[in-house]
Amino acid sequence: MNIKRIRFDEFGPYRDWSFTTGDNGVQLMYGPNESGKTSLLEGMRTLLFGGTHKAYGPMTGALDVDRNGESYYIGRKGKQLDFYSPGNPAIHEEPAQHWWHGIDKKTYNRIFALTLDDLQGLDVLQEVEVRSRFFGAEGGEHLGGAVKDVEKGATDLLVASSNGKRRINVLMDELKENRQKLSQLAEHEAQYVELQTVFHSTEQTEMELQNQLKEWKEYRDGIDVVLRAWDTYRRSEEARMHMQQYNSELALSRDEFLRLDEEIKRARDNMQLWQEKEAALMPANFSPDSPFGTYGQDIEDLIQQGAKWEQLRRECEEGDAYIRKVREQLEFSRTLHSAWRHDEPMAEDINWFDGERLASRLRTAKEQLLHWQDRKPTEATDEVPTANLEGASLPNFSEEELAKKEYLERELDRILMDIDRVEARRNSPGSDAQPTILPKWLQRISGIGAVIAVLVVLAGLLVLESALYTIGGFIFLILSMGLFWYATWRLHNGNSDVSKLNYELQILSSRKSDVEHQLEALIKAATPTASPVPSLEGVAHLERWIQEGHTLQGIYDEALAAWQNWLPQGAAKSLDEDDFFGLKHEYDQYHEQLRTIEGYEKRLAEHKEGLRIIEDQAMALWYNLGIEAPVSPTELKRIYNQYKNFQQNKIVWEQKEAQRKSFRNEYDNWHRKEKELLLRQQELLHKAGMESSNEYRQHLIDEDQYKQWQTIYKQSQVQLDLLAPDAENKDLFYRRLREGNKDNWLDELAHSEREIASIEDKLATLYERRGQIVEAMRTLGSDQEQHQMLQEREALQSELESALEDWATQVLISHCMDKAQQSYEQEKQPHMLELASSYVERLTGERYTLDILGINKGVALIKNNGERLELKFWSSGLADQVYLALRLALAKVFSYQVESLPIILDDILVRFDENRQRSALELLAELGKNQQIWLFTCQRSVYDMAQSIMGIDCHRLSRS
Fold it and tell me: What is the DSSP string of 889-951?
């Protein structure tokens, strides 16, 4: 059977409320506390089974159900039932009697319609109604009624009370009086007295045994009460612990806060509604607050500079490439310099005036020294024979001459190295210095082209008077001049390299000759000669000549040192005075090219500055528009197209401005109301000393938790009070619960059972002996009165035996029916337990199953490693999962025997963790394929989780 529609005209908090179910088997109703979930559960119970609710009074409402493909209507108005199938006569029986074999509301509430409190415990498995309907034979409900009738018949014959007035109790009292009279009649007989004495001793012994039996039974009953109260006491202790956890001294205004919270939610829903309506008027991909509206003029201004931007970027890129190439060529040209070293930087500031002066001074000193050598006296030549050159002694150098000699030798080595280097460069086969003939031909061709171009221009101006010829001639002339310039540049770069190397080689050769000449003169001057005694005039002339040589040599050395000191950084150290103009020419040529490059770099820097200004404007615009793409003219065009689309959409938007303003006004009104409500809520939070509404809401949830646990605690205390004995033993009862151990109490219970069995055996033996004594006393009776008493006793005993036989028959029948019931239970119950075990395995992620084989020892679980976990070691969440699995299995068994009834579960997943909540939802979705299940929850996480599971319809509960 499936419920298709629910209608509450008036029930509890519901007024004119209706709900239509979805297509899936599981209907999940989500709503916060106080949203009416429990009231909905009570209303569905009342509609199915009738009755009047204690708190809400009579029900006025209806259910539309589907059963075996046929629709039915179940309506109630107080005690009036309206039950029919459309198009068929009314049905005057209750649905439970008509369809479900008279199942009562209590059993339905214990199995099918559960709150968290109803879910607790395993006592439901021991209820007669549940055992007969769920585990009994076919028609088990009738068997249960018969068992009750038999038990009532046995109770009408005998009650276990000394003041009982049932038939057997009365006969036993009358028989006792008869025995007392018989004992009085037989007092004169010694044997009778002896028998009576023995009889009285047996009575005394019986009394003692009965007292012992009573004490042991009381002790056993006390232990049994403790064991039956054990789970209830533990639940009450758990509830008390949670009460301490959730207890709060804050005075919270629950109704006012919830009303404000509901109004704030309503205001926000309306704000969202009007905002969505306003958004629906907006064109696609359009926002009136878009930065395109603010910075539109900036986009227009920048798009006007787009062509300039592209031109500047192109010129800057080409300029950078050109400057790199020219600088590379300039650096390469330094390697071709003969007067400058390419591996050292060239000096920036050079005093060329001093250099030219020092070069002229050195040249003059050198010429004077050479002229002095040419004026060598003839006396020195004539008076020095050739033999003196052969027998001359070794040169004798002074320290100054030795240092000068070493300097000249080093200078000669450097000059030789430079000569080798220049010759190697000139003779290198891959050198760029190889001359080429191509530039000369280009010069000739360009010269001829220039002449032809001039003739064409003159013909166009003077003869033909044609602008076309004139313009063509000018273009041809420009091309010819450009070709001539290129050929000249190629010729200069080609031939100049070879000529420079040859020029450099000539200079180095000249310097090599000068240094060798100076070294030779120094060696000759230091070499002593043996000559004959010259004439006085010759000696005087020779001395003057030598003295003049020393003077000129000093002047030359001083000029050379000044020249060497003046040579700038980067210049070759082997340069002499003749290299000055070559040095200056290469310096001027290099710096002229460098200034040309710097001038071009300056113009390029101006272009880059203009480009930077444009790109800075673009970057600022990009930032204002929130665009992360690189700055480029192409991106600007794309942005401009977006801006044009924005303007078109803005026109459409402005055409709907009136309707949009209306929606905006509605939104503003609800927004103002939301602010007012938030202020009132803030005052309420400030009054309670809290920072946020979530904190206040959490305190309300804690308060609800406190009330729930308080209810559980009170219910547990009521059950304990009902189970507790009289006042003088109540303290002992509670002390046993606090200090005892369940295993010890079970051992004590078994011990008391053994003691009771032993005493009952003793009483049976005593009763047998007493019967023998009574028989002997009956034989001794001889008078008429004693005979009448004996006859009366026999009649009473006969009647008592008949009553006892009837009572024993009733007890035997009850026992046999109970055995039959147990036999059917043994057949049916394992199937239910197997179902429950599979559900437990699903709910616990395959960690536990029910211990079906050891069910006689009590309900326990088997871990996946084979270890047995007893009930006392279960956590509260695990216990809820086992209880839920048992209820689902019972409901499944009932669906096999009778019919599948709707299962209604109210917040039973509160103590499940997230993984087991998902497992429970998946199990319910699977069961919902064949049986309708209603799941109520106040947990948003459960609601969100259920939306991702197939087979579950998720609804938000609203009483409006």
Answer: HHHHHHHHHT--PPEEEESTTTT--HHHHHHHHHHHHHHTTTS-EEEEE--HHHHHHHTTSTT
Calpha distance 678→686 (Å, rounded): 12
Residue by residue, DSSP assigns 532-555 as ----HHHHHHHHHHHHHHHHHHHH
DSSP state of 78: T
Cα atoms in the 13 Å half-sphere on the side-chain side of 535: 6
Among 109, 139, 623, 555, which residue's Cα sits nearest to residue 364? 555
**Quick check: 632 pLDDT over 80?**
yes
Structure tokens that stand for 473 in this block:
């001639």
Minimum mean pLDDT range among 64-73, 146-155, 229-238? 146-155
Q: Using an 8 Å Cβ cutoff, are 372 and 548 in contact?
A: yes
Number of separate helices (H) and strands (E) present in the chain: 29, 13
Local confidence band at 390 (pLDDT 50, 70, 90 cut-offs): very low
Q: Please tell me which of 148-152, 224-228, 479-483, 928-932 the model is most confident about, judged by mean pLDDT.
A: 928-932
Q: Is the separation of the CB atoms in 410 and 564 below 8 Å?
A: no
With 0-12 / 13-18 / 19 or more C-beta atoms within 10 angstroms meaning exposed / middle / buried, residue 232 is buried
Tens digit of pLDDT for each residue in 659-691?
Answer: 778 888 888 899 898 889 888 888 888 888 888
Residue 119: which of 936, 894, 899 has the closest Cα? 936
Q: How far is Cα 911 from Cα 904, in angstroms, rounded to an integer?
A: 18
Place of tokens 């904190």: 695
- Short-list 294, 297, 308, CA closest to 615: 308
Q: Give yes or no for a contact between 683 and 319, defined as CB atoms under 8 angstroms apart.
A: no
Token representation of residue 954: 């998720």
Q: Which of 590, 576, 703 is nearest to 330 (CA)?
A: 590
- Tell the residue number behind the tokens 């498995």, with chain if given: 125
User: SS3 breakdown of the chain: % helix, strand, coil, rounded to 5?
Assistant: 70, 10, 20
DSSP character at residue 267: H
The widest CA-to-CA distance across the chain, in whole angstroms, is: 217
Per-residue pLDDT at 805 exceeds 80: no
Q: What 3-state DSSP class applies to 436?
A: coil
- DSSP single-letter state for residue 395: P
Query: Coil, strand, or helix at residue 466?
Result: coil
Phi and psi for 372 in degrees, rounded to 5?
A: -65, -40
Q: Is 113 within 8 Å of 53 (Cβ atoms)?
A: no
Q: How many CB atoms lie within 10 A of CB 621?
A: 19
**By three-state DSSP, how is residue 28 classified?**
strand
Element (H, E) at 774: helix 742-780
Q: Which two tokens stand for residue 924?
A: 């319910």
Q: What is the pLDDT of residues 918-953, one digit of tens each?
A: 999 999 999 999 889 999 999 999 999 999 999 999
Report how far residue 749's alpha carbon sits from residue 583's, in angstroms, rounded to the nearest whole number: 127
CB 47, CB 33: distance < 8 Å: no
Question: Would you state the structure tokens that stand for residue 863, as one six-digit string?
Answer: 């871990």
End-to-end CA distance of the chain: 27
Going by C-alpha positions, the residue among 247, 524, 303 that lies closest to residue 405 is 524
